[in-house]
Structures are given as C-alpha cells and as structure tokens.
Design a protein that fits this description.
The protein is mostly helical. It has helices at about 5-30, 35-55, 55-60, 65-85, 110-135, 140-145, and strands at about 95-100, 100, 105, 110. The chain has a two-stranded antiparallel sheet with strand order 1-4. Strands 2-3 form a two-stranded antiparallel ribbon. Helix 1 packs antiparallel against helix 2, helix 2 packs parallel to helix 5 and helix 4 runs antiparallel to helix 5. The chain starts with a helix and ends in a 5-residue tail after the last helix.
C-alpha cells in the first residue's frame, strides 16, 4: 500500500492534541458536556486517523495493549463501579467521591462518575481498536487464492 506523506504527517501531528482533548472531555464530562463516551470517540477517531495514514501496523505501534485487553479492562472497571456498592449494602451505582491532596497536584476530586467514565472510554477505544484489528489487516494468502492446494 502506497502511503500519502500529507495524510501521514497530519495524523502524526493531530495525535497528541487529539488525545489531550479526549482526556479533557473525559475528565470534565461528569460536570460539563463530554464524558467517557465522547472522550473515547475522540480517541477512537484519532486511532482511525492513524489507521488511514499507516495501516494496522502503525495502530499497533501507537496502542501498546491488545484491543480485547483495553475493552475488557474498561468493562470490568465500569461494571465494578456499578456493582461494588451492592456488596457494601448500598444501591447500585451509589455515588461516592474522595478529595485527596497530593504535593505536586494539589487538591483534586475523584468520584464514582469519573471512574465509570474512564471505564466507558476504555470500552469505546478498545472496540474501535478491535474493529481495526479484525477488519483492517490484509487477508492471509490462502484466502486470496495465492497458495496452491
């Protein structure tokens, strides 16, 4: 496959800023428009741009984990946040928040909505990556009829 220099350079240039924007949408989504789904879609669109520019091998070099690992960990995280309160005798999806103070970061808030949104974002990114992994690779030679019987 012949690569386009313009598409390749553009995809590499937008990668950092698009991922920062996806992270911004993820972190402010439970207070403002955005959230895990929208942040995951922006990150997935970035993966799609990398795929268009360089194919599945470039996507594999950018995402260091297997797609089913990303998707599965997001599903476990979201389901865990939803079901964990039941084990403590509270209703499902019970809201909680902690406000730790770290020396470098200062005061910040972590809530159940944020953790749930992180899980949703991982599911969306894992699903987009899995689609490219499943359908983006070239067919093996035996399916193209290039191998003799």
């Amino acid at each position: 496959m012949k690569r386009s220099v313009i598409v390749d350079v553009t995809a590499r240039l937008i990668l950092p800023s698009a991922l920062v924007f996806a992270l911004h949408l993820l972190l402010v989504g439970h207070d403002r428009p955005g959230g895990g789904f929208v942040g995951g879609l922006v990150a997935g669109a970035t993966i799609a741009a990398i795929f268009v520019a360089g194919g599945i091998d470039d996507v594999r070099s950018v995402v260091p984990f297997a797609p089913w690992t990303v998707l599965g960990s997001g599903l476990v995280l979201s389901a865990g946040v939803a079901v964990a309160p039941i084990l403590l005798g509270d209703p499902m999806l019970q809201k909680w928040k902690i406000e730790p103070s770290l020396p470098v970061l200062g005061d910040f808030k972590v809530s159940s909505a944020l953790v749930f949104d992180v899980g949703v974002a991982l599911v969306v990114v894992g699903l987009v990556f899995m689609v490219f992994e499943a359908f983006g690779d070239e067919e093996p030679p035996e399916y193209r009829g290039e191998v003799g019987s």
